[in-house]
Amino acid sequence: MIRIDTKYLGSFLERMPTGLDEEVSKAQASLEQKNCKGSEYTGWVELVDSIDENLMAQMTEVSNEIREKAEALLVIGIGGSYLGAKAAMNFIGGDFPVYFLGQNISSHTWSQVREALKDKTFYVNFISKSGGTLEPALAFRFVRTLLEEKYNEEWHRYVVATTDREKGKLKGLADRLGITSFVVPDDVGGRYSVLTPVGLLPLLCAGVDVRSLMQGAKAEREDILSGQSDALQYATIRNALYRGGKAVEMMVTYNPALNDLCEWWKQLFGESEGKSSQGIFPASASFTTDLHSLGQFIQDGTDFLMETVLWVEKENEDFEIPRFDEDTDGLDYLAGKSLNWINEMASEGTMKAHLAGGTPNLKIIVPARDARSLGALFYFFEYACGVSALVQGVNPFDQPGVEDYKRSVKELLVKGI
Ligand code: PA5
């Protein structure tokens, strides 16, 4: 179960706007009853109630084939079509190489990925709900040339498509060539899709225990429904702080294995809330590294920040600080102490200092760096995000701003400047 610790919110905790709890309860009810804004995209809410065994068997068969026949998987996708899988691989690890492409329009990136893959056998999982997004579509053109060089007319047998059930260019190509395909459910938007084939297929390929991931998400949902989860409290606190002038939420990690999770979280909250000239801006920092760059600003700069520390309770590794005869760095008092304990003290000390400087700190505690905890965390954030955006009065499931920029870029590409 995901827990939150409010110790370092200090007096901010006493300044909760009246009526906010009721607003959160109303938002939750509208999400569950499917009469909220964007209700046609709330399929992710109950998706975790049971595992679709048929789908799981199909995905397992395809991932086994990839793991047996190839040396690597290349995932092509952008935004909600890759961030969840990448976050999970960063958080848990895996035992099979997975590369990512289609997240930018950089020649340098393509040259690096091509170099990494040119002497390897690999499969491609092209993930795009719309099938027409510029970055992954361009990437696929380059990758297709590489596949054709390697596998000649058999190239399409090394492609798996994850896309819309019936529309879009990728769906058309997959049907024409008989490419193995998985469906992004109609009622699940990109940034809420990590627990569908969008995230699950690459994770199966990577060797991640996706059953435990799903079980963790299901358990978190059950906790939410029985009032045991802190997800709604998280939604409440961040909105209370926002109304008190904290317009930026900085997600902070003390382990780089959580950094890609912050990228996933930023998309989830940024695209869900940032509309109609409002919303909490989601930012992230990796501590203690960034304390030596952003620390000054957080402690002492513009007063618009709330900080959310994402903390793993039981880490997978730990080390004792070595002792030497000479205390050259003056740190002998730490010899024999655990590195994880020092990291924890660094986080506690930093939260204390930042609170004193006017930045409230919330701590989100994840039990362990394993699949079950991650599934719970994915669901915790998705649910809190849906509720939080509804409290702010916006549709959590559309992204009109993204569509605007896509249109503007396309216009230039077609007509030129
Ligand atoms: O959350 C979203 O819906 C977006 O970020 C999309 O995931 C992103 O734009 C990619 O779209 P598509 O999967 O259609 O290529």
Q: Assembly state here?
A: single chain
Q: What compounds are bound to the protein?
A: 5-phosphoarabinonic acid
Helix content: 40-55%
Global outline: globular
Summarize the structure.
This protein is α/β, with parallel strands linked by helices.
Please provide a written account of the structure.
- The chain has 417 residues and is an alpha/beta fold.
- The chain has 15 helices and ten strands.
- It has helices at 20-32, 44-47, 53-69, 83-92, 107-117, 134-151, 169-177, 197-206, 210-225, 231-243, 259-273, 295-300, 339-356, 371-391, 400-415; strands at residues 3-5, 72-76, 98-101, 122-127, 159-163, 180-183, 248-253, 281-286, 305-314, 361-368.
- Strand 9, helix 13 and strand 10 form a beta-alpha-beta unit.
- The longest helix is centred in the C-terminal third of the chain and has 21 residues, at 371-391.
- It is globular, with a radius of gyration of 23 Å.
- The termini are far apart.
- Bound molecules: 5-phosphoarabinonic acid (PA5).
- 5-phosphoarabinonic acid binds at residues 78-81, 128-130, 133, 136, 189-191, 271, 399, 402.
